[in-house]
């Protein structure tokens, strides 16, 4: 289990090659690329331009002897107002396929996507949500098989609405397991986001065990259980013994991948190196709880 992080703790205009170098120097063993951050810019560029850009990033990672092992794909669902419209579905699928091609250039084995909400209102039945998602994601299989890149669908969380909560599809691990299992292909897996699980109020050890061998990726972050804060572990109230015990029990072989940009963002750029070192040491502590010694020392 490698210690990994998304590189989007750096501002968008910060040189990616330098971000890679600093992450490697801090002790990270692998990296996550947050493709969705770059979507507004990439949509104004041709595929040839994006391909050149991706190859430059891959070359920088190779120079520093570190690999991108995860990517966050483009957001869907509410980002397209409603997924009922065939036009919006086609736009999402085209962007998703493009992200898979970029992931292939970067050497990324798993791209994380959010399960689709059919509409912003989320009033559809569970069965309708499940079948809609199966149909949409199955359309990406040709591109997945062509590139060899898998899709890891992420657990979500219910959102406040009025005096109650608006249900989000795949906020529960059983829903996510059913969706991924129903897609029935080795290139489909699950991503467990610890922050989402905490907002949902779940026992995360049990949730991870419910996913079992379907689990291929993680988003490691903390919060107080009230909002999706993306903080370093131990700055919220997540029970990390439960999380790490669950990962150990299912024989998880992926990476421990931070998604903690809100921890890093307030820190001045020239202080990020010490903050990243602290984050690496925090991951080492988590791994030591299940008897794993990180390779970086």
TrEMBL record:
InterPro entries: IolE/XylAMocC-like, Xyl_isomerase-like_sf, Xyl_isomerase-like_TIM-brl. Residues 20-261 form the Xylose isomerase-like TIM barrel domain. GO terms for molecular function: isomerase activity. Keywords: Isomerase. It holds the Pfam family AP_endonuc_2. This is Sugar phosphate isomerase/epimerase. Gene3D superfamilies: Divalent-metal-dependent TIM barrel enzymes (3.20.20.150). The keyword Transport does not apply.
């Amino acid at each position: 289990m490698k210690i990994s992080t998304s590189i989007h703790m750096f501002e968008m205009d910060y040189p990616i090659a330098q971000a890679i170098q600093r992450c490697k120097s801090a002790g990270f063993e692998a990296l996550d690329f947050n493709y969705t951050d770059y979507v507004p810019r990439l949509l104004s560029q041709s595929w040839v331009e994006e391909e050149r850009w991706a190859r430059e990033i891959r070359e920088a990672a190779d120079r520093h002897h570190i690999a991108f092992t995860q990517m966050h794909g483009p957001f869907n669902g509410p980002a397209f107002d409603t997924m009922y419209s065939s036009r919006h579905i086609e736009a999402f699928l085209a962007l998703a396929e493009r992200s898979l091609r970029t992931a292939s250039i970067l050497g990324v084995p798993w791209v994380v996507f959010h399960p689709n909400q059919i509409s912003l209102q989320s009033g559809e039945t569970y069965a309708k949500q499940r079948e809609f998602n199966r149909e949409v994601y199955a359309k990406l299989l040709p591109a997945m098989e062509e590139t060899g890149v898998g899709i890891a669908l992420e657990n979500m969380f219910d959102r406040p609405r009025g005096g109650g909560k608006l249900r989000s599809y795949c906020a529960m691990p059983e829903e996510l397991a059913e969706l991924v299992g129903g897609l029935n292909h080795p290139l489909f897996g699950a991503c467990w986001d610890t922050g989402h699980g905490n907002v949902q109020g779940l026992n995360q050890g049990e949730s991870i065990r419910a996913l079992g061998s379907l689990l291929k990726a993680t988003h490691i972050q903390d919060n107080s259980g009230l909002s999706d804060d993306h903080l370093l572990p131990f700055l919220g109230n997540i029970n990390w013994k439960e999380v790490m015990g669950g990962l150990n029990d299912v024989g998880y072989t992926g990476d421990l991948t931070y998604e903690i940009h809100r921890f890093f963002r307030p820190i001045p750029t020239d202080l990020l190196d010490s903050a990243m070192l602290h984050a690496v040491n925090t991951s080492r502590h988590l791994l030591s709880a299940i008897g794993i010694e990180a390779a970086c020392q």
